[in-house]
Amino acid sequence: MTRGTTNPNRLRRMDRWIAAVHGAELRRAEDPVAIDLGYGAAPWTAVELLGRLRTAAPRTRVVGIEIEPERVAAARPYEREGLAFRHGGFEIPVPGRPLLIRAANVLRQYDEAQVAAVWERLCARLAPAAGVSRGGLLVEGTCDEIGRRHVWVALGPEGPRTVTFATRLGSLDQPSDLAERLPKALIHRNVPGEPVHAFLRDFDRAWAAAAPYASYGARQRWLRAVRDLRADWPVTDSPSRWRQGEVTVAWTALAPRS
């Protein structure tokens, strides 16, 4: 069981990213189901996820899953059309295969050695790729208490795809401030010799070089830093996402070396 901290709007950055990059998959699906895994002591994150996903895919249904029965009972009064709560864990106790599983601030209490097995188990529950569809999406990551800084890994049925760094730009001194929010698979790898350490080092250098753009605001400085970063790192998203205080990098570039 997690600590259960669920401040309203805590996961807004992750939710908006999901709606932007996965909305088309949800719209195409006959019965788009999204899972809020480990929603915590209050149902706010599941309620908010439904609202944000329905802006992109109006037929989306959300199921909140918690391992603590008392939390499920407390959430039941908030059920409505498109929103339900179930007792369970990594087995994802819903029929069929969901198109989205969001697991925010869940794996931080596990050992790093356990992460791969959990990812594999959750990915096996995702809707498979078929035709033009890439299949379901697992989004697993960590954020601070009020959602200013957030890092998550996106995985498909085939495994990890990308890592996204997202922040409220006005609160950022330098990009490596996000290191404390790295997901469990990476947080202990922020040491010399590991790719994620090199990435954050290079991001800080690009941020420093972009200091003249600070006079135009933190967003312009971030945009310039990410553009420079692209010369050496496989950034997979576009300026429309960078403007949100995000940058997404291919998982293969940041994956642990051992």
UniProtKB/TrEMBL annotation:
Output the Gene3D superfamilies linked to this UniProt entry.
Vaccinia Virus protein VP39 (3.40.50.150)
Instruction: Tell me the organism.
Output: Streptomyces lucensis JCM 4490
Q: Which InterPro entries match?
A: SAM-dependent_MTases_sf
- Name by which UniProt lists this protein: Methylase
